[in-house]
Design goal:
Chain A: Residues 621-651 are annotated as: Disordered. The complex is a heterodimer of chains A (651) and B (548). Chain A is mostly helical and 651 residues long. Helices cover 64% and strands 0% of the residues of chain A. Chain B is elongated and about 115 Å long. The model of chain B has no long low-confidence stretch (mean pLDDT 82).
């Protein structure tokens, strides 16, 4: 009796030791004592903990063997979970799936799918009061990951959803569902509506959770459909110049998972808070960029995720300067915030700040050579420096490390696109579109490439598809307009362009971002084709305000003037265009033509008589001749004017 | 503007306040201008000197402002901007934006590799960024008068001139004492939108502005009149006004008066370099070599690295026909300030002398970019394209010059010559005609006109012109035989004309005159023979001749 008692005592003590050492990450000691406990008790619970220690020591096969040899992987949920996790971490997905399929729990689990789980805890083989729904959620999550690892993404998504249904707090499942752009915006909304938040939380908390999750949703959306009032209106960016655009995405590595409450240094947080407040109060009407209007979640303002969400909005609004300011703040507080990094890199690419990108890429590669984002940064660096070969090499590496990393695929496509390798670019975009089913960007880019290869019909098809995903994106409207323009259907083109412009004006009052200068120019071109010259000029001059000193705008304006037969102006604008771009053949040819027209057209000087004047002799004969003092082509061309007394500015 | 009156006391008070405000903000040129004016008013005495409290000083930003301002003063603009990044008071905000602007401009000049071209306008991204920022702030009504002025500056730099005009107008409405804004406005306003003057605030600064703008637009008479009014009102000893008057004289070709004025300025303020390049132009035109040499030495001893100095020295070398050296100095001037107009034009002339047409074209073009009202640059461009045998372009440029200087016969003759080259004889003729009626400086218009009349078979007119020409030539004292070819050709033409007409006496006179020159001697003899023959014929058929 005494020995059993003593045994029990020391078992308790050893169990405690194991826990403490695990908490302190002293795994060898934990393993040692866990082993001793198992020797005494040999209960499934202790064996589980022994396996746990092995797992933590990264001895995955050892742990799996232990659990399987004791047949625990069939009857106990946690043990099954751990076994699967071991195989998952060694990338042996088939083995992992085998374990899942063979486990006895499946029967119970399948039942549970249909009704709310009321099965007693013992049936799952849980220990230590692990909440059953969390355990189940984790199990489904893992199953989903295994399936995803086997490229079975449809089933994986189902598993994630189940995980979320079991436990609405299981953010990872939510994040995995949305972060790879698998779902379109409306599907995301549906998902959020369908998860049983209300059932699992108190009503107040339910709002908070919902609002927090909403922050993570896609942000290129019209303001009306957003649930949060005054909410983010975002658009994915740019195209016609083929400059790169990447959607935000997180690298999938377990050790970097972020939670909604990541740390931030107080100072920055305070600053940001102030900014946010300012935005809220001063620019309520103006900046629809503030996701924090919801009182429920305002207490989480210190969380960097909020700022990330905000900078995302800025990015999609093409406000790169403001965005980069914000991301820089965020990265100051948390230098490797993985939600912010892709955004930050994209901004650096947009602003072509190769120096900063160089430093960032180096640091990232040094610290996280296994993360796709690091190599993505390197690839982007080479991309903006125009070294497409290197860019491709590193972007390919990024896609190898994380096959689901969409931005890398897009950038890979861009690297081909800028070299006019349309087919290869399209291949990369296609790959991206497969990965990011909920994102219209790849489709848009494919359409663009089709348009560039004169395959207008196909381009139109892709734009249509893209629009079905993101119906309100002005970029798509713009591109559709371009296609119509190529078809010579100028009325339709004008319609599309105007729709895009209207959309942009709706998103943000105040000055339009300079990214949109091409749109205004295209409107100008279209109006010119439709012979609305005045309007055309108006649009071109607006474009000029957004993007000053652009040679092509200058020559477009000049061309309109030619058509309006304002040769004076035309010559002037062509001169300006050629001043910026001297070898522009269009402007040169046009100028040659126009200047001749102009000479035909014009009277030699302002008050020139119609007929040949009759010579009647000069009255002021004696005053006229006064010798000119300087040499005639001398430096100071002295243009002596003897008739000052008669001088009148008659012009 | 005639009922213009100034209350000197309030003017002085405003000046003092403005000087304080502008110097707080580092607007050095405006401060200079205001202070010059203030100095000219030193006879006016007002109380309460030096009590200028600025209202928008928020105490928690004062320290940062002072620090930043000190960096600004030693031209460390980036540093200045850094410390004001988060300031919100209008003054700090302005200094922040302004130092960023100056930093961008400074870097642009520093990065200029070749002086032959000003900073590349396509690499203006920083400026565009700043512009976008100012734009959104402007839209949000967050800019004060000074910052609006800065916005205008940036717009102007980016070539958005029409918008810049509106912005500057807004700026002077808010800050009528900001001379910089007036100044820029004067440079931008073209005659077309002179109407905007009723948008301008009714402030005594407007008077200065109007005078300045008149001068810019070559409305010299009016400008001069306005400045003289100011002068008579008691604002004397203001070097600014004096130099403006000198410029007006210069534009009106009253060269001696202009030189007189410059001498007066230099007497009063011997170290003033502003506008001395114009002075050197005057000396150049009058070929006052020694005076120019003296001026060159003087300015070089004052400050070697000023644009004006470089231009003076460049002119000096040019007068000595050392064109390569002249170009060197103009280049230096442009390195110091790529927006210095007259250096571009002068450099263009030098390149023309050196027969480097391409470089000349470039220089002229930049000159026009800096100020499209520079008729000398337009004319120069016309000349270069004439050399390049591109008559249509040439026509365009001459025309621009002619429009700017409608009463200058040289422009219109150049225009006529181009028309002639393009076989548009009628237009050419009209040009020459205009040149003749306007007072022909070079004296070639008459013969040219006559030739064209002849070409168009307007023989009567041609003869009339030749008669006019011959009369004028005979009046001239300084006859140089080699240059008399046109004259003898004219005589010959007239002889022929009268011969054909049967007016044998006149024909005889002109034919005799032809004998005076070697070249036309033979023709003269032939003509005389023909006349004699005709005379005999006429005597034979006397009655018919009477009828004819």
């Amino acid at each position: 009796m005494e020995t059993t008692n003593a045994n029990l005592d020391c078992v308790e003590k050893y169990r405690k030791l194991v826990q403490q050492y695990i908490d302190l990450h002293v795994y060898d000691a934990a393993l040692f004592w866990a082993d001793k406990v198992v020797a005494i008790t040999n209960t499934p619970r202790d064996i589980y903990w022994l396996a746990q220690c092995m797992y933590l020591k990264k001895q995955y096969h050892r742990a799996a063997f232990l659990l399987q040899s004791k047949n625990l992987d069939k009857n106990y949920l946690l043990c099954t979970y751990l076994t699967v996790k071991c195989y998952y971490d060694t990338n042996e997905y088939n083995e992992a799936l085998n374990v899942i399929n063979k486990c006895d729990m499946n029967a119970i689990l399948n039942i549970k799918n249909e009704c709310t789980p009321n099965i007693p805890e013992n049936d799952f083989g849980l220990f230590d009061n692990v909440p059953k729904n969390q355990a189940l959620a984790a199990f489904y999550l893992l199953k989903g990951k295994v399936l995803e690892g086997m490229d079975n993404r449809g089933l994986a998504a189902d598993c994630y959803k189940q995980a979320l249904y079991c436990d609405v707090y299981c953010f990872e499942a939510f994040d995995l569902l949305i972060k790879y752009q698998m779902l379109s915006a409306s599907e995301e909304q549906d998902l959020l509506q369908s998860i049983p938040i209300a059932m699992q939380c108190t009503s107040e908390e339910a709002h908070v959770v919902k609002a927090l999750y909403e922050l993570r949703l896609k942000k290129y959306h019209t303001p009306q459909t957003q649930v949060i009032k005054n909410a983010p209106v975002i658009f994915i960016t740019n195209k016609s110049d083929n400059s790169s655009h990447f959607i935000k995405s997180l690298p999938s590595t377990p050790n970097l998972q972020i939670t909604p409450t990541s740390i931030s240094t107080p100072m920055v947080a305070k600053n940001n808070e102030r900014n946010l407040r300012k935005n809220q109060k001063l620019h309520m009407t103006k900046m629809q960029v503030d996701p924090l209007d919801n009182v429920n979640i305002s207490k989480f303002q210190g969380s960097l995720d909020f700022h990330v969400a905000q900078s995302e909005i800025l990015f999609y609004n093409c406000d790169y300067n403001k965005c980069i300011n914000l991301t820089e703040e965020i990265l100051k507080a948390d230098p490797y915030h993985d939600g912010c990094l892709p955004l930050h890199i994209s901004c650096l690419v947009e602003l072509k700040q190769s120096n900063k990108l160089f430093l960032l890429a180096h640091t990232l590669v040094d610290l996280y050579p296994n993360l796709a984002i690091s190599w993505f940064a390197v690839g982007c660096y080479y991309y903006i420096n125009g070294k497409s070969d290197y860019a491709r090499r590193y972007l390919a590496k990024a896609t190898c490390l994380d096959r689901l990393f969409g931005p890398a695929w897009l950038a890979y496509g861009h690297s081909f696109a800028i070299e006019n390798e349309h087919d290869q670019a399209m291949a990369a975009y296609f790959k991206a579109s497969q990965l990011m089913k909920g994102c219209h960007l790849p489709l848009l880019y494919i359409g663009l490439e089709c348009g560039l290869t004169n395959n207008i019909r196909l381009a139109e098809k892709f734009f249509k598809q893209a629009q079905s995903i993101a119906p309100d994106d002005p970029f798509i409207m713009h591109e559709k307009g371009v296609v119509c323009f190529q078809y010579q259907d100028f009325d339709a083109a004008e319609k599309h362009f105007r729709a895009a412009l209207e959309k942009i004006r709706k998103i943000k009052q105040g000055p339009i971002q300079s990214t949109w200068a091409p749109l205004l120019n295209n409107l100008g071109h279209t109006c010119r084709k439709l012979k609305k010259y005045e309007e055309s000029l108006e649009f071109h001059s607006q474009a000029l305000l957004l993007q000053p000193q652009s040679a092509s705008t200058f020559s477009a304006i000049a061309y309109v003037h030619v058509l309006m037969e304002n040769y004076d102006e035309a010559v002037d604008w062509f001169h300006k265009a050629l001043g910026l771009k001297r070898d522009d053949t269009f402007s040169t040819t046009m100028l040659n033509y126009v200047i001749e027209q102009w000479a035909e057209d014009k009277t030699p000087f302002s008050d020139c008589p119609e007929d040949i004047p009759k010579f009647t002799g000069l009255k002021t004969r004696n005053e006229t001749t006064q010798n000119n003092v300087s040499g005639d082509t001398g430096s100071n061309m002295s243009l002596t004017n003897n008739e000052t007394q008669e001088m009148s500015m008659d012009m | 503007m005639n009922d213009f009156k100034i209350d000197f006391k309030s003017m002085k008070y405003e000046l003092l306040t403005a000087i304080h405000e502008c110097s707080e903000r580092g607007l050095l040129q405006s401060v200079k201008w205001l202070s010059e004016l203030n100095f000219a008013l030193s006879h006016v005495i007002i109380k309460a000197d030096g009590e200028f409290k600025t209202l928008d000083d928020s105490p928690n930003e004062t320290a940062a402002f002072l620090l930043a301002k000190s960096y600004f003063n030693i031209k460390e603009y980036d540093r200045c901007a850094h410390f004001l990044k988060n300031s919100h008071s209008p003054k700090s905000r302005f200094l922040y934006l302004y130092s960023r602007y100056l930093s961008i401009e400074k870097k642009k000049i520093d990065n200029m590799t070749d002086v032959n071209c000003p900073p590349n306008p396509t690499q203006n991204n920083n400026l565009k960024e700043l512009c976008a920022e100012l734009k959104s702030d402007f839209y949000d009504n967050k800019l004060d008068g000074y910052s609006i002025y800065l916005y205008g500056l940036v717009l102007k730099k980016l070539g958005l001139k029409t918008l810049a005009v509106d912005i500057f107008i807004k700026s002077v409405q808010e800050q009528p004492m900001l001379w910089g804004a007036w100044f820029e406005l004067g440079k931008l306003i073209s005659e077309k939108n002179k109407t905007c003057s009723n948008q301008l605030p009714d402030h005594w600064m407007k008077f200065f502005f109007m005078a300045h703008t008149n001068l810019e637009q070559l409305n010299n008479e009016e400008a001069l009149q306005m400045y003289e009014e100011l002068y008579s009102m008691g604002i004397q000893n203001c070097t600014y006004i004096m130099s403006q008057i000198a410029l007006a004289y210069h534009n009106m070709r009253k060269l001696e008066d202009a030189i007189e004025m410059f001498k007066k300025i230099l007497e009063f303020d011997p170290y003033r370099l502003d506008n001395l390049d114009i002075y050197s132009n005057l000396l150049y035109v009058l070929e006052k070599k020694t005076d120019l040499a003296d001026l060159a030495h003087k300015v070089a001893s004052i400050d070697k690295y000023r644009v004006e100095t470089c231009c003076v020295i460049g002119n000096y070398y040019s007068l000595r026909s050392d064109h390569a050296k002249a170009v060197l100095y103009f280049k230096r001037a442009l390195k110091l300030n790529p927006n210095f107009l007259s250096a571009w034009t002068l450099m263009g002339h030098e390149y023309m002398e050196m027969k480097n047409t391409n470089a000349a074209i470039q220089s002229y073009r930049y000159a026009i970019e800096v100020n499209s009202r520079d008729y000398r640059a337009w004319y120069g461009l016309g000349q270069t394209y004439e050399i390049l045998k591109m008559p249509f372009y040439c026509l365009y440029y001459y025309k621009q010059a002619q429009q700017l200087k409608p009463n200058d016969s040289r422009m219109i003759i150049a225009l006529g010559e181009t028309y002639e080259r393009l076989d548009r004889t009628e237009n050419a003729l009209k040009c020459y005609y205009k040149a003749c009626t306007m007072g022909d400086i070079e004296g070639s218009a008459l013969t040219k006109l006559a030739k064209l009349y002849d070409k168009l078979d307007e023989i009567e007119n041609a003869a009339a012109v030749y008669i006019e020409y011959c009369l004028r030539e005979e009046d001239r004292d300084d006859k140089i035989p080699e240059e008399q070819r046109d004259y003898y050709n004219a005589l010959q033409y007239l002889a022929n004309y009268y011969l054909k007409k049967g007016n044998l006496d006149d024909a005889n006179t002109y034919a005799y005159k032809c004998m005076e020159c070697e070249e036309t001697k033979e023709q003269g003899k032939a003509l005389l023979k023909a006349i004699a023959a005709k005379r005999i014929e006429q005597e034979d058929l006397d009655p018919e001749a009477e009828v004819a």
